[in-house]
Specification:
Elements (H helix, E strand, L loop, with lengths): L3 E8 L2 E6 L4 H11 L2 H20 L5 E9 L11 E7 L2 E9 L7 E7 L2 E5 L12 E6 L2 E11 L11 E10 L2
Antiparallel strand pairs: 1-2, 3-10, 4-9, 5-8, 5-10, 6-7, 6-9
Length: 174
């Protein structure tokens, strides 16, 4: 059928048909009528959080989104270490951490270069970020940066860190 698009909208098998010249506003208004208000709120929340994540990653340096990382075991030190592979020309490095938009308690980050712990940040809670910490001299070549979180009691943390995620910024020291 020319002039129409078909899209399964997840509405109990219903298929929406819209003319090709449908505007974004008309599509949004159609969705607001068809979707339950609760589902629409979830969609808007996801879009807002996604946009917030993009804004948070706009810093200088190499920015890496880490997580969600799920911790096994008990206690505040997460047993799972996220890794980032980097290639550097050599020199002194530094790093900082921004908790993700869904963070509900404070964590500090342990940074590792090729399995050796080289730095630990201060604690940063929801909406905060750590200052840069020195990673020391990093030789030229390919390296694995390990990122391990340690929680502290407060917010949703009642004595054990279960998961974490956020943004890591790695850059050459000025």
């Amino acid at each position: 059928m020319s002039g129409t698009r078909h899209a399964a909208a997840g509405l109990g098998g219903a298929v929406l048909t819209a003319p090709q010249d449908t505007t974004k506003r008309e599509t949004f208004l159609t969705l607001t009528r068809l979707l339950p208000r609760r589902a629409l709120h979830h969609i808007v929340l996801i879009l807002v959080l996604s946009f917030a994540g993009l804004v948070a990653t706009g810093a200088a340096g190499n920015t890496y989104v880490v997580g969600p990382v799920f911790c096994s075991g008990v206690g505040e030190l997460c047993t799972n270490i996220a890794t980032i592979n980097i290639h550097v020309a050599g020199g002194f490095g530094r790093a900082k951490y921004h908790p993700g938009p869904l963070a509900c308690s404070a964590v500090r980050i342990h940074f590792f270069i090729d399995g050796n712990e080289v730095a630990v940040t201060s604690f940063a809670g929801p909406g905060e970020k750590t200052p840069f910490v020195s990673l020391g001299f990093v030789t030229s070549g390919t390296h694995t940066v390990g990122v391990q979180a340690e929680g502290e009691v407060g917010g949703c943390n009642i004595g054990g860190l279960f998961s974490w995620g956020g943004t890591v910024i790695l850059e050459k020291s000025p």
